[in-house]
Specification:
The chain is an alpha+beta fold. Helix content is about 50%, strand content about 20%. It contains 12 helices and 19 strands.
């Protein structure tokens, strides 16, 4: 069978999910690393900025005492502007500096050694303001490698200045470098501790964020798995909290949408399952994607030829558009209406076997009714023409008798057609009451006395009454008796037999006429059907059909047993009920 359920599978060569080959790094790890890297970068940047300033500060600190010497000397001068040599000598000794008086570029007093800066002295004399020279390194002599600072203060007199000189040994500079190194080591230790603290704080913060994001991920997985009732508890009103609130709103919306989709799906399934038509949908490869129970039943009960033809129709609809076709499957006629879909096709199948049979029956009914009406009408027309030219009264009376017979035939045909139509439309009313079947049989014998035929009534045992419509039952049995007389030889008796079979009462009408061939017995209750050998009778083919319709609506059953040239027995069985009272019901 070509209708297989479609199974999903990954296509060959389909691209894999991006990043599937990379190792998974947790948010805790990369957030912690990010915190540490940012802290390390900030610390390194701050150190690079502070280091030159710190070194300059240390060097200046080591030189600050010489600058203070000049400042103190200025304060001394302001208090007492008169300085003699002894006072200068005491000031220099107390501050561990050399002193001297320079005039015209030469030392005239003091203990200055080589290395003082004459430029600084000249600048102080010229500007009449104290001047301090930048450090100068001694290149020769016992003080080689030392740094010397010159401080000059203009004095009274022409080209005269008081000069102080300070020497810094290499050990003083090394002490500053050592202090700077110690500070660097302390800064490194402090940086490492800061990085550790930052890493721990970053990990804690990252863990808090990761836990919240993980809850979001777990909730998203459950939502993807179909648990639309999943919600996230949010306590912090931050970005992650807003994301959780948005997730809850999305989950609620999805839950409502999915519930609506499920309701629509159930509604569609109920509609499809309740349809009397078979519905089947297929994909582009003609694999069934859905089908209702009626389609399943129809496919299972049909042969392989129907499958092949249905496949052709579905394929054709995908190319040509909507099409309608009738397919014969075994003894059924199935109408297939197929239409293309975006990714397949849809077929609606309907068993129209009964519809076609009804249409054929209608056509046959119209043809037979036209034939039955045409015969007496033509006969009446012919008799009327002959009556116009016929002068013999005896012949005219014979024509009139035949005309009355044809007129009666037309009346019977019209009455029978009207009754069948009323039964089919449910307009015929049946009034049921307790009926003694034996009385009906004797009434039938009296009604057909005019035929001169011998009609025997045989009651076998005690038969209880039945609940039925006596008028309609009498009519159905009268049809059977009339047929028995018509289809048997003159002088042949007709037997009316009443007996009980279980909980049913059975009335049989037996004749000894031409009988009915066995292949035709299943059709004799069809409308306008006349068995072989019945052409000598003036029947319409509607009597037995009317008798069966009446019997069915009375809740009974009519059967026939017949052999050619031996006669036929028609039996009507009704439920034997022991209750009386008039009842009225409409035939539906």
């Amino acid at each position: 069978m070509f209708f297989g359920r479609k199974r999903g599978r990954r296509k060959e060569g389909a691209p894999r999910r991006k990043g599937a080959g990379w190792p998974r790094i947790g948010i805790r790890a990369w957030l912690t690393a990010l915190f540490v890297l940012v802290a390390a970068f900030a610390g390194a940047t701050a150190y690079e900025v502070v280091k030159p300033i710190l070194a300059e500060t240390l060097y200046r600190a080591s030189q600050a005492n010489f600058q203070q010497v000049g400042e103190q000397f200025q304060r001394e001068v302001q208090r007492n502007p008169h300085f003699d040599y002894s006072r200068l000598k005491n000031f220099a000794a107390s501050h561990d500096v050399q002193w001297g008086i320079v005039q015209d570029g030469k030392q005239v007093a003091g203990n200055l050694s080589e290395g003082w800066n004459p430029t600084t002295v000249k600048e102080a004399i010229k500007t009449r303001r104290p001047q301090q020279s930048p450090p100068h390194t001694i290149q020769l002599g016992v003080r080689k490698g030392q740094e010397v600072y010159t401080y000059a203060v203009p004095a009274q007199g022409k080209d005269k200045a008081i000069v102080f000189l300070k020497f810094y040994a290499q050990s003083d500079i090394l002490n500053a470098d050592a202090a700077l190194g110690n500070i660097q080591r302390l800064a490194m230790i402090a940086g490492i501790l800061a990085l550790v603290i930052t890493g721990l704080a970053g990990y804690i913060a990252a863990d808090m964020i990761a836990r919240r994001v993980t809850r979001l991920g777990i909730a998203a997985d459950r939502l993807a798995a179909g648990n639309f009732s999943e919600r996230i508890e949010t306590t912090l009103k931050d970005e992650v909290g807003d994301l959780g609130a948005t997730f809850n709103a999305m989950a609620s919306s999805l839950e409502g949408a999915f519930r609506q989709v499920e309701q629509e799906k159930e509604r569609s399934k109920a509609i499809l399952d309740g349809m009397t038509d078979a519905v089947i949908g297929v994909d582009a490869e003609l694999n069934a994607t859905f089908l209702n129970p009626r389609a399943q039943e129809l496919l299972e009960s049909s042969g392989s030829e129907f499958y092949s033809r249905l496949r052709e129709i579905l394929a054709e609809s995908r190319e040509r558009g909507p099409i309608t076709s009738e397919v014969e499957a075994s003894d059924k006629v199935i109408e297939v209406r197929a239409a293309p879909l975006e990714d397949g096709a849809l077929a609606i199948m309907r068993d129209i076997t009964e519809q076609r049979q009804v249409e054929r029956a209608k056509a046959e009914f119209i043809a037979n009714a036209s034939h039955e009406l045409k015969t007496p009408i033509f006969a009446l027309s012919g008799y009327l023409e002959m009556l116009e030219d016929e002068e013999d009264e005896e012949v005219r009376q014979a024509f009139l008798k035949d005309m009355r017979a044809q007129t009666e035939r037309l009346q019977n045909l019209a009455r029978t057609l009207l009754d069948l139509s009323r039964i089919d439309s449910g307009a015929l009313t049946f009034r049921t009451e307790e009926v003694d079947l034996e009385e009906i049989l004797y009434e039938l014998r009296r009604d057909f006395t005019y035929t001169g035929r011998e009609i025997n009534v045989d009651v076998e045992g005690e038969v209880p009454p039945v609940e039925t419509d006596p008028t309609q039952l009498h009519r159905a049995l009268a049809i059977l008796v009339d047929n028995a007389i018509k289809y048997s030889a003159d002088g042949s008796p007709v037997d009316l037999i009443l007996r009980r079979e279980g909980d049913r009462a059975v009335v049989s009408v037996r004749d000894y006429g031409c009988g009915i061939p066995e292949p035709e017995q299943e059709h004799i209750f069809d409308r306008f059907y006349r068995a072989q050998g019945s052409s000598r009778a003036d029947g319409t083919g509607l009597g037995l059909a009317l008798a069966r319709e009446i019997t069915d609506h009375l809740g009974g059953e009519i059967t026939v047993q017949s052999r050619p040239d031996e006669g036929s027995t028609f039996s009507v069985s009704l439920p034997a009920l022991d209750r009386a009272g008039d009842k009225e019901r409409k035939v539906s």
